[in-house]
Amino acid sequence: MVIFINVANNAILRANLEEDKDPEEYGITAVNHPLNLTKDQLSEVTVLTTSVDVVVAICVIFAMSFIPASFVLYLIQERVSNAKHLQFVSGVTPAVYWFTNFAWDIANYAISVAMVVVIFIAFEKKAYTSSTNLPALIALLFFYGWAVIPMMYPASYFFNVPSTAYVALSCMNLFIGINSSAITFILDLFENNR
Length: 194
Fold this sequence. Notes:
The chain is mainly α. It has two domains: about 1-35, no CATH class; about 40-190, no CATH class. The protein has helices at about 1-15, 40-70, 70-80, 85-90, 95-120, 125-130, 135-155, 160-190. Helix 3 runs antiparallel to helix 8. The longest helix has about 30 residues, at about 40-70.
């Protein structure tokens, strides 16, 4: 706004100069020193920025809650149709069975992590993609997958219908993820209000 007014005032000044005067020698210089934000304004900006970050985190929680829950679908289907039993009878050991499932699931999960990171980079979310935060984000997402995928495997024994398991485990992941994020956000607000 200040620049626009300065340019307009310079145009008016130079248009009204006498004809024997050089317009390039005359001009108005404007300097703008805005006031610092008050504590209330700064607090509002901080809460707004934090709120946007929480919404982004919840969107990531939604995406990353459905992916691990989908890994039990084939496990349930194999158990119910006795394909798992057939593999064990054919000589596959339980260790090999579970390791290959985990390796395949972590490989599929890595694709999802790569897509999440690419989206953050594309939208230039500096809170997640700065040079110090990006490696931490990638590590956090991979460690989440490393922890949550084995937690889904025992749950496959509680269900006989894969779609029911998918909905239940997705809801469980969402409940845990959103509640822990909300609690962290609320506690952070209380800490800032001291």
